[in-house]
């Protein structure tokens, strides 16, 4: 991500402790290599669609992901208390720059791309080695909902956000 701005899940990174993730960088399958894109890959990511909520004290973080339309899954993030909104972000998962990317626009800023490097059932990992922090964004389906983790490529500075699906 670019200096001074945060991705939706990292808004409160300094406030929430996270678990370190595996620092090994997987070799992407051929279908994830830059220049190749099968729209069916985006269908494999639709499990993220819906509204996800994390409540920490008085602070709520809510991510909403719309179902795949065309070749884009659109998302938004909103962090708020009863008194005020403290953060918002426009998000999308789409075919960009020759591959599938997680595109973050915190506070409406210009887009920062994180390329898909790993896709499994219930797991997607995006990376941008040139970004200051985070360099990796990981979404994983869990028994209770969804965990989004941000970190550096080596797994350091990790922060996990545990979301539950909103009815």
3D structure, described in words:
By secondary structure, the chain is an all-beta fold. The chain has a single domain (30-165), classed as Lipocalin, CATH 2.40.128. Helices cover 3% and strands 46% of the residues. It has 1 helix and 10 strands. The protein is globular, with a radius of gyration of 15 Å. Mean pLDDT is 83; it is low at 1-27.
CATH architecture: Beta Barrel
Helix content: under 10%
Structural class: mainly beta
What is the CATH superfamily classification? Calycin beta-barrel core domain
How many domains? The number is 1
- C-alpha geometry: globular
Major sheet strand order: 1-2-3-4-5-6-7-8-9-10
User: Residue ranges: pLDDT <50 for 5 or more in a row?
Assistant: 1-27
Query: What proportion strand?
Result: over 45%
| Gyration radius, rounded | 15 Å
CATH topology: Lipocalin
CATH class: Mainly Beta
Mean pLDDT figure: 83
Instruction: Please report the total strand number as a whole number.
Output: 10
* Spatial gap, N to C terminus: 31 Å
Please describe the biggest sheet, giving its number of strands, its sense, and whether it closes into a barrel: 10 strands, antiparallel, barrel
Order of helices and strands: HEEEEEEEEEE
Number of helices: 1
Write the layout of secondary structure elements.
Elements: H1 39-43, E1 50-56, E2 59-65, E3 72-80, E4 85-96, E5 99-106, E6 112-120, E7 123-127, E8 136-141, E9 146-151, E10 159-165
Antiparallel strand pairs: 1-2, 1-10, 2-3, 3-4, 4-5, 5-6, 6-7, 7-8, 8-9, 9-10
């Amino acid at each position: 991500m670019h200096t001074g701005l945060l991705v939706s899940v990292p808004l409160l990174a300094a406030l929430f402790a996270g678990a370190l993730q595996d620092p090994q960088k997987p070799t992407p399958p051929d279908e994830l290599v830059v220049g190749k894109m099968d729209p069916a890959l985006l269908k494999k990511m639709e499990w993220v669609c819906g509204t996800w909520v994390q409540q920490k004290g008085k602070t709520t973080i809510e991510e909403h992901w719309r179902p795949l339309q065309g070749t884009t899954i659109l998302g938004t993030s909103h962090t708020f208390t009863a008194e005020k909104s403290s953060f918002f972000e426009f998000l999308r998962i789409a075919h960009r720059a020759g591959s599938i990317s997680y595109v973050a626009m915190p506070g409406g800023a210009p887009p920062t791309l994180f390329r898909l490097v790993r896709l499994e059932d219930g797991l997607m990992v995006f990376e941008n080695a040139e970004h200051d922090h985070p360099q990796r964004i990981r979404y994983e389906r869990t028994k209770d909902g969804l965990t989004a983790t941000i970190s550096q490529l080596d797994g350091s500075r990790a922060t996990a956000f545990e979301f539950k699906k909103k009815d």
